[in-house]
Design a protein that fits this description.
single chain, alpha+beta, MutS, DNA mismatch repair protein, domain I, Trna Endonuclease, Chain: A, domain 1, 2 domains, five-stranded mixed beta sheet, 11 strands, 31% strand
Amino acid sequence: MIQAKFSGTKIYSTSEEAFSLCEKSSFGENKNNKIEYALVEALFLVQEGKMQIFSGKKQINEELLIKKLKKIDKKTETKLSVFSDLRKKGYIIKTALKFGAEFRVYDKGTRPGNAHAKWILYTAKEHDSINWHEFAAKNRIAHSTNKNLLIAIVDEESDVSYYEVSWQKP
């Protein structure tokens, strides 16, 4: 089991298990001799029984972790539904803040560093609204990074529906 530390807004580990899982399944990123995790990625690993997170010497249980993460990102639960759904279907998901999006999604069988992500992903709850200007901006970001836009809509039961938007040449 991975032993990780929660400090400020970062979750990281220096355990052998963390390096192994990063290499094998692309969880976390190897930075400065430690594996750093996206917050939702660490929460997923806790739920899957693969990680324990500590603040100092005290272990943070799943309920407290969700509470802490929601203070950092109010969309934590929506993002977790999407992250869990895609990872369990065999996709690799990484953050996409430098692209101005929530996630990058790699097609099945491809890995970060070996191939480019196929999609830029945004998440929303089914009752959220988006205006055409926001939609166009999201699509423009995807197009400018040579990726398709993927929008994940999470319903009240935490089921996820995906909508892919791509540019077509007439």
